[in-house]
Amino acid sequence: MQSHIPDAQPIVVVCSADEIYAMPLTVTIYSVLSNLASKATKILLFIMDGGIKKATKRKIESSLRSNQLEIQWIQIDRNQYKNLPELRYLTVAAYYRLLVTEVLPKEFEKVIYLDSDMVVLGPLEELWQVELGDKPVLAIRNGYPHLFSLVPGLSNYKELGLNPDSLYFNSGLLVINLQKWREDRIGAKALEFIEQNRATIHDPDQDALNAVLEGQWGELDPRWNQMPQIYEFSDWKESPFDDPETYQSVLDDPLIVHYAISKPWHLACNHPAIPLFEHYLDQTAWAGVRDTRLNLFIRKVKREIRSWRNSRNENYASSSLPKTASESTVKV
């Protein structure tokens, strides 16, 4: 796409997307580039490609053309994920982050993972400079639920030997210690957890990472992942935050807005920051594109097809798995 990034250490970013998430992925990265603190900053972006069309790739590249960005495409074999559950709001591409260490060059020590439904408002240089220490990952506690005892997908926490008071993080924004991730086989263990707990998990990749990394992850400034639930709390006491100042800063001054539930490119979305998303959207090759009722109907049909496939795959998995959920272990 562009000439190779100079020898200066780039910020390494990874995203995953299929054709469905190609447009919002572009918005996410466009917002990253728009809010960098320095014109000298370089971004090395790896896109884990789960089936993006060639024409769509050209739109992505034309939208993100910048001497501050280099894009590396990583082709993903979707067949290795074909038996994993897909949900109404989650496609197979969400699982790609679990094996990030298997596709990135071993020369990199850390990477920032961004979900493809975000608008980044803060300078990514600041996030990149946060020290990992010996933590395998840095993240932000989930908007709600934020304790294991409240998470629907970890309702079997007692059988799994998990602490009900452990903090539960959102997996949409991760700063990953790649060496630690490799050494501890975190991605592989998360996939094993999903296979062994299909009957209980609700947010498969996120539930699995939380179970595998219980008590081992480090917390970032929560402004780096503003979850949509914050608009539903009447005050800070209902929120996952420990004090009113933190709550107010996340509400009023987010560094990343994460459209984690309702998507701003869908007609049915009522997120208050839809205009923010559309501001960046209209600076890409998708300028002026808005959702239609026909698209709404098509998505409904596709969701029903995915639901049927999940049901079929779960029936197959339940008849072939050697272990029950209660027999699985998740400690690293």
Helix and strand arrangement:
Layout lengths: L10 E7 L4 H13 L8 E7 L4 H10 L5 E7 L24 H4 L6 E5 L3 E3 L3 H5 L8 E5 L15 H4 L8 E9 H6 L2 H11 L7 H9 L5 E2 L24 H9 L3 E3 L15 H8 L11 H28 L12
Helix pairs in contact: 1-2, 7-8
Structural overview:
It is globular, with a radius of gyration of 19 Å. The protein has a single domain (11-327), classed as Spore Coat Polysaccharide Biosynthesis Protein SpsA, Chain A. Helices cover 32% and strands 14% of the residues. It has eleven helices and nine strands. The strands form two sheets. It has a seven-stranded mixed beta sheet with strand order 3-2-1-4-7-6-8, sandwiched between helices. A two-stranded antiparallel sheet has the order 5-9. It has 332 residues and is of the alpha/beta class. Strand 2, helix 2 and strand 3 (69-75) form a beta-alpha-beta unit. The model is unreliable at 1-6 and 320-332 (pLDDT under 50).
Through-space gap between termini: 40 Å
What spatial form do the alpha-carbon principal axes imply?
globular
Which CATH first-tier class would you pick? Alpha Beta
How many distinct domains?
1
The biggest beta sheet, please? 7 strands, mixed
And the CATH topology? Spore Coat Polysaccharide Biosynthesis Protein SpsA, Chain A
Mean pLDDT: 88
What key phrases describe this protein's structure?
332 residues, alpha/beta, Spore Coat Polysaccharide Biosynthesis Protein SpsA, Chain A, 7-stranded mixed sheet, two-stranded antiparallel ribbon, disordered N terminus
Task: Put the structure in a nutshell.
The protein has helices at 22-34, 54-63, 100-103, 124-128, 157-160, 178-183, 186-196, 204-212, 244-252, 274-281, 293-320; strands at residues 11-17, 43-49, 69-75, 110-114, 118-120, 137-141, 169-177, 218-219, 256-258.
